[in-house]
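Thread: Chitinase, structure

OP (GT): Posting the sequence first so everyone is looking at the same thing. Length is 372 residues per the record. Can we get the structure tokens written out before standup tomorrow? I want them in the notebook alongside the other entries.
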Amino acid sequence: VSTSVTNSSITLRWGASGGTVSGYRVYEGSTRRAEVSGTSATISGLGACTTHAYTVKAYNAAGESAGRDATATTSGCTPNDPSKMPGAPYLYMGWGNPPNPGAVMDATGIKSFTMAFILSSGGCTPAWDGQRPLTGGADQQAINTVKSKGGSVQISFGGWSGNKLGPNCSSPQAFAGAVQQVINAVGPAVVDFDIENTDEFENYTVQDRILNGLKIVKQNNPNIKIVVTFGTNPSGPNSHGVRLINQARALGVPIDNFTIMPFDFGSSNIYQDTVNASEGLKNALKNAYGWSDAQAYAHMGISGMNGVSDQQELTTPGTWTQIRDWARSKGLTRLAYWSVNRDRPCPGGGVTSNCSGIAQTEWEFTRTTAGF
């Protein structure tokens, strides 16, 4: 069951049950809140910032099915954490039949996107995908649309593949200069550095160049949040991730958020492994910075992969809702996933760029992420 919320209502959506179904009943405890023939229901008249637990049951002449559960909190809470970023799934304008972000915003309530990826177009010169200009193209058009509707963007540098700025820029100053070009062109709220693979994550010369460059970026742009995103083991960051965290501390790099990517890591239970990996990240941050649990969680993020991953791991809409709710309950400050392009149904479709490989409603993962 996936959920979306307003100040006074919670909308539930679920997959159809098999067999003969007359309709569905939604219960809060033993109280029936709705009875519908379709696969969604909106419960209205709720207080702002109140949490509700629901059970959805199919019924027919023979009785009711086992229940499916969902918990959601209405919006309107007083923000108590200025470091929290709105949910911002990755959107890639050079791949996977990119949707119009304005239409996705209208359909889901999402307010922010992480725009991927800034690479090198040769040397230390930044470009979208290493080939599209920073301004005047599809990427800028998408960003203008998001901002015109009151939204914000995170800009992601790097990723798994491609010709990246980290190895190509000769110094921290040059790297910071390339990042500044992007900031000046695009005006992001957040810059996200996806430090991956052997050329950046496992190359400590490049790790240090990026980290020292980020110190300069933050000095020159104190109001822009800085995120580093990297892979993980099911138990937490591997040696390269722990090194990145410890080195950020040693160099005094003011990183606002450390985001792990808990997928493509041999998982058979994505929810549990995501929680375990996040707890491992928390412990690594506590060890490096001397933080409390709450301080560590407030510097943490999760970036998942919707549907079927490259390693055939499965993240269903229900699982993603669980992950979102766990992240929210612990006070994490970033939630993203790869990717909006894939947030469309194609059951049995495998791992592809423009759909999730599973049964879902269109933009279901984005709608859930908006509830972060």
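GT: Both are above now. Quick notes for whoever picks this up: The chain has a mean pLDDT of 95. The longest helix spans residues 270-289.
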